[in-house]
Specification:
- The chain is of the alpha+beta class and 468 residues long.
- The strands form 4 sheets. The protein has a 15-stranded antiparallel β-sheet that branches. Strands 1-2 form a two-stranded antiparallel ribbon.
- A hairpin with a 3-residue loop joins strand 17 and strand 18.
- Helix 4 runs antiparallel to helix 5 and helix 9 runs antiparallel to helix 10.
- The two termini are 24 Å apart.
């Protein structure tokens, strides 16, 4: 599960302990490893790796039904899943994938028209969940006090995040433009439930984007996410729900409807919505797919196109059969056939198009090129990063290298260490102190949030906790 939707699939307090599942992969890594050689400076910009050290392990050999059948309708916070269902990233790193399309923020800042800015911010909001496409592995739950930083000169941003709460799990992040043109921040605490054949992630927490030049702030919450066929069949993802992006400075709003796949998958991956001014008048329509692209068009042009399309279209009604509503647990929810292109309405403007993934992505957890570099760690970085940075987590590092037995053992050790530390604090009634964020009120949304306290980049890490 992706950014904003997948941090609480397991708990270190579980009464249920599942044996670490390990399997062997015969895939060769030579094709991918060649991409990681010579990561030197090019034109002053650091070159990042474009693959992982080892391919992913197959999940096909493990059936979960005997484990999960008692959890139907419950929040999945009291069960530890086999590590084979993870991907080698912390949830803090998954959050960082919001920033893959940072160029859209820079682009929004350049527009003088507020509607054009909101269109581009909407494209950024959709692009932030695009990395979830076919990403069916779950990230590692961050340990309390875990951090992650990323500075990308080439993309024009730097980001820091911290796991600020364990029960409930809350991840806070703060990013800013290197040229000080934007601030992007939020705190996320997703809730996950198991429904027999699927796992649903309900987003909690608000995301805020500030465009400094225009003195504007936008906020929104991500759509819900559902992973189908966690028991049997091919895993597939859909996103659904309404995302409301508010410009707190102008009163303009963008309402985006992430459509559930519906009967026969006609609406799978589709996003459709509109921008309204402060008097609630629709000024343009936005449409596309979160897995592909996003377009905008004038409202009148859209309405005229839809009317003509209905007149010329085939209006046959498809008979619903009992097969559509099969819900037995031994049958998979077949993934609808994907229509790969969006029908573009004449006169539309392209807002965003997804970046192609490398050809070997399916062997590497369906990572994007951006995701491939999130856990890279060179000697220079080791001397700079905070000791709590998740690049130092031995369980994630072992899984990335294909050492599943070591990864499972290290994960268990870290969770036990975290439990022991919590018991010690309980004895002395000591409260956990966050390091880089504090609980406060978001000045734009007027709701509780975790606010960045500053000073992370001063590199004073003397009082960081020992969590690994």
């Amino acid at each position: 599960m992706g950014p904003g939707t997948g941090g609480g699939f397991e708990s270190d307090d579980s009464e249920t302990r599942l044996e670490t599942f390990s399997s062997k992969s015969g895939s060769s890594t030579s094709e991918q490893n060649v991409h990681n050689q010579d990561l030197t400076q090019e034109n002053g910009i650091k070159k990042h790796r474009t693959s992982l050290p080892a391919p992913m392990y197959s999940r096909n050999q493990l059936s979960l039904w005997s484990i999960l059948k008692k959890c139907i309708g419950l929040e999945l916070s009291k069960i530890t899943m086999p590590i084979i269902f993870n991907e080698p990233l912390s949830f803090l790193q998954r959050i960082t994938e919001y920033m893959e399309h940072t160029y859209l923020i820079h682009k929004a800042s350049m527009f003088s028209d507020s509607v054009e800015r909101l269109q581009t911010v909407a494209a950024f909001a959709v692009s932030a969940v695009a990395s979830q496409w076919e990403r069916t592995g779950k990230p590692f739950n961050p340990l309390l006090g875990e951090t992650y930083e990323l500075r990308r000169e080439d993309l024009g941003f730097r980001l820091v995040s911290e796991q600020v709460s364990h029960h409930p799990p809350v991840s806070a992040f703060y990013s800013e433009g290197i040229n000080k043109d934007f601030v992007f921040h939020g705190s996320i605490y997703p809730k996950l439930k198991f429904w027999g054949k699927s796992v649903e992630a309900e987003p909690r927490g608000t995301i805020t984007l500030e465009l400094v030049k225009h003195n504007e702030a936008y906020s929104w919450t991500n759509p819900s996410c559902c992973v189908h066929n966690v028991i049997i069949g091919k895993l597939w993802i859909e996103q659904y729900g309404t995302v409301e992006i508010t410009n707190h400075s102008t009163g303009e709003k963008c309402l985006l409807h992430f459509k559930p796949c519906g009967l026969f998958g006609k609406e799978l991956h589709r996003v459709e919505g509109y921008i309204q001014d402060k008097s609630k008048r629709k000024v343009c329509v936005i449409y596309g797919k979160w897995t592909e692209c996003l377009w905008c068009v004038d409202t009148n042009t859209y309405e005229t196109y839809k009317k003509n399309d209905k007149k010329g279209g085939d209006q046959k009604k498809v008979k619903e059969t009992e097969d559509v509503f099969r819900s037995e647990n031994d049958e998979a929810d077949e993934m609808p056939e994907i229509q790969e292109t969006v029908q573009v309405i004449p006169g539309s403007k392209l807002l965003w198009r997804i970046t192609a993934r490398p050809s070997y992505s399916s062997q590497m957890y369906n990572f994007t090129n951006f995701a491939m570099m999130l856990n890279e760690l060179d000697e220079e970085m080791k001397g700079v990063l905070a000791p709590t940075d998740c690049r130092f987590r031995p369980d994630i590092r072992a899984m990335e290298n294909g050492n599943m037995d070591i990864a499972g053992a290290e994960k268990e050790r870290l969770e036990e260490k975290q439990r022991a530390a919590r018991k010690e604090r309980a004895k002395t009634e000591e409260e956990w102190q966050t390091r880089w964020f504090r609980q406060d009120i978001n000045q734009h949304t007027r709701t509780p949030d975790w606010i960045y306290t500053g000073k992370y980049w001063e590199r004073n890490y003397e009082d960081c906790p020992d969590i690994y």
